[in-house]
Predict the structure.
Amino acid sequence: MARLMNWVRCRCLARDRQTSSQCQPAKSAARAGPQGAGGRMKCRQSPARVPFQPRASGTSTEDPMNTILRLAALLVLLLAAALPFGALKAADPPVVIGLVIPLSPPGDPTAGQLIRRGAELAVDHINGPMGGVIDGRKVALSVQDSQGRTEGGVAAYRRLVSEERAAAVTGFFHSSVNLAANEVAKELGVPTLGTQTSAADITAKHYDVAFRTHVIDPVRTAAWLDFIKARNFKKVSLLAETTDYGIGLLTETEQQSKERKLGIELQAITFDHGTTDLTPLLLQVKA
């Protein structure tokens, strides 16, 4: 099981950085398995960033169904790692997958509903064409509202693990919520799978239970700096919410711009996560 968990982790981290990721056995005898030879899989990554490559004209985007199928497959792998072999039978109760998403302000309810619809499609696919998880056991979704707040996300994660007996918890639109939940997941041992969270520390801390499907801040920043350079923009304003998501992208943009010596004048404007009217900020940019 430890090998499977680490294999999934390597796959997720490799997708984050768009770099090669290779696994090798750890040489620590203290962590060796009963045979003493297998060891534990560790993930190594190259820190190099890959420049953004624009999609060729006329190239179609990825089929959304492929994304759903990959998410379903990843959920199955997480389930297999979290549940003991021999404990899964078709007649057993459904395996619970927790979904922590923003369904009310100050979070983003629209994004939360979209993630929920995607998760429901994945569950339908697992229980239908895939025939359930190991030995045909069905999957059930348990949804919790984080409200886009760290305390709401932590409470939702704890509730799913302790009361709903979730085998894994996914969702996590807001980076701050995902980061906070990961600290609890590290202690409780039930894996998290971020879907739209981009803060690098979500997986950069290398927690064994922390996974993601979304590209991280350094790669996103490199992409729009390539765009800015291609358009020869010299003055750029950045509006960032005061969260791990907003400040993380702002900081990364300033850092990469200096490293690449792009000569861009950056105007950084921050606002509270709960702000609903950005008109004054836009007027400030216009001035």
Q: What stands out?
A: Strands lie at 21-25, 41-45, 95-101, 139-145, 168-171, 192-194, 210-212, 235-241, 265-271.
